[in-house]
Amino acid sequence: MRTPVMAANWKMHKTIPDTIGFIDTFITLVRDIPQDREIVIAPPFTALETVCRAFLGRKNLHVAAQNMHYEEKGAFTGEISPVMLSDLGVSMVILGHSERRHVFGESNELISRKVVSAISHDIKPIFCIGETLEQREAGDTVKVLESQLSEGLSQVSESDMENVIVAYEPVWAIGTGKTATPDQAQDAHDSVRAWISEHFNSGIAEQIRILYGGSVKPENVNELMALPDVDGALVGGAALDPHSFAAIAGCEI
Ligand code: PEP
């Protein structure tokens, strides 16, 4: 019912030659993967054009940016606008990733502006939320997720909500090798869907894709994808190798 999304976040990895090498192998490896899923790569800005060109005309392969500014243009040194991303053929953008929140201090308010701007430029936001270990241990996981959802999606209308992809990424599982257990992941995804049902409506909640992120690997992806409320994965480290990401993208669904 919900088309799964298998997404790679390359973070600050890969030059253009590295990207070409990856894509050459990857495209061959995913040629026979069923078309029942969307496969997404989010390279650094400098490699977006390379991946966009390589994916041109391939219906289930998409390109995402890892961040964007909410304005279309202006005096924002070092920033990239939604118009610039659309220009390249980028159709998705990762927003509110935990590294943006925790390393670069992005607030829910800033992320919320970016989410609205992305939607209004026909770029689907992959809107990331997740609790720290301290918050989980304090029993605050659901409270944290709900406040990130309510602030980050505060300006999204019901009709625009179908264009949002949510990624639940527990901060303690990102890049650590520690994956959430199936129960932890399912509970978090279920609470996200329940919040969406309450604050938008049950139809939207049923439609929305909620991805899990945090040390996803070929060895654990099938178990995660078997969970009723997990609709895909956002993958960092294990998506840097074409064989590893092709195995994840081609998981059992
Ligand atoms: C991420 O960067 O969003 C991520 C989940 O990284 P990793 O898969 O390396 O934990």
Overview of this structure, please?
The chain is an alpha/beta fold. It has a single domain, classed as TIM Barrel. 42% of the residues lie in helices and 15% in strands. It has twelve helices and eight strands. It has an eight-stranded parallel barrel with strand order 1-2-3-4-5-6-7-8, surrounded by five helices. Helix 2 links the parallel strand 2 and strand 3 (61-65). The longest helix has 18 residues, at 182-199.
- Give a list of the ligands: phosphoenolpyruvate
Structural class: alpha/beta
Task: Give the overall form.
Answer: globular
The CATH architecture designation is Alpha-Beta Barrel
Unreliable runs: none
* Major β-sheet profile: 8 strands, parallel, barrel
What is the CATH top level name?
Alpha Beta
Could you name the CATH homologous superfamily?
Aldolase class I
Q: Tell me roughly what share of residues is in helical segments.
A: 40-55%
Order of H and E elements: EHEHEHEHHEHHHEHHEHEH
Question: What is the strand content?
Answer: 15-25%
CATH topology: TIM Barrel
The strands making up the biggest β-sheet line up spatially as 1-2-3-4-5-6-7-8
The number of domains: 1
Distance between the termini: 12 Å
With helices defined by DSSP (H or I, 4 residues minimum), what is the helix count? 12
